[in-house]
Protein 1
Amino acid sequence: MELKIFLPKISVGFKLAGVYRILFDDGSFYIGCSVDLKSRSHGWNGIIKKPFGVSAEAVGGQVIAKIRICGSATMDILEICAPDEVKDREAFYLNMYKNDSLMLSVADCQFKPVLQYNKRGTFIKRHVSIAAAAKYNNTTLNRIQEVLNGVRKSHHEMTFVYESDYEGRRKEINKDRYMFGLPPKNKNAKVLQYTMDGDGLVATYDTYAAAARSVGCVDNNIKRAISGRQKTAAGFRWALSEVV
């Protein structure tokens, strides 16, 4: 069994962080990340050389099994990045190839997209992974996972849900809006238009009608998007400004 490693020459004492790929002879591949690619490559070699049936089988999982079947594999770099960005960049590539049947599956759910809402059920942001959500909210992975798994209802007055689970949990997330409807009309409340991923504020409107005219849809669609009855309207995310 052989793992051919293609990494740039790294000086002694210097660590190179990034996302790597292990490519097998049959075309299948595995994507991983590390804050120390050289050390990770040595780790894979050490696991591969251990006798079959040793606990390393559980560590290497399907990667080890695949190398045993194919006989050899190649490890190369997909991207070099800062150490604190490796999880986000790994999630980017895993999401890019998620529909590729040749990619070995990821055992856990940490790379599934996560949606974030505030306590009123207003959409805040779409995160590419749990790690990205934790980083954005300056908290730990465990806290985000506890909300996702239902151990706690919220964290710092924020609710998190896997994007794939949203339809099933929509009424739970937007409970107040489903029970009491949209917030009462207030002249100081503004209609906020956001990009599809929720990252950027596109425009602010005084009324639903003005927002609807701007994007070319009926104002009821925007109301439904704000209430949580649908995710978007006219290709945008929508929210009402907080009234103090």
Note: Confidence is low (pLDDT under 50) at residues 53-60, 176-184.
Protein 2
Amino acid sequence: MSHESFLAFLIAARDDRSLLARYDGRNLAQIVFHARNEGYDFTPEDVALVVGALEANVILTKDKSIYDGTAPLWRRMWGRKHLDYVVKEVVQRHTHEELCDIIGSIVHE
């Protein structure tokens, strides 16, 4: 599934700083296109669903905050490139098992 492929991409970017650096300056269309050339297969819609689910988990479960404009996670996004923020502020806050569980819940919706 493409959700799993995007998760694999995020984990690879978390674990390989050169991969993150290569992709961080690219826009969403470029990320999707170039990642496909490296064996990943996901769409912009997959990116939105996965990132949204991971952000919600950080806000609601990890930060124990309200999911609104005042959530502390949003302040950590300001002034950063989006992929850098997602990898360092969202993905890194989850264990591998948590990431897989969240993706599994998206697939079963």
Note: The CA atoms of residues 91 and 99 lie 8 Å apart.
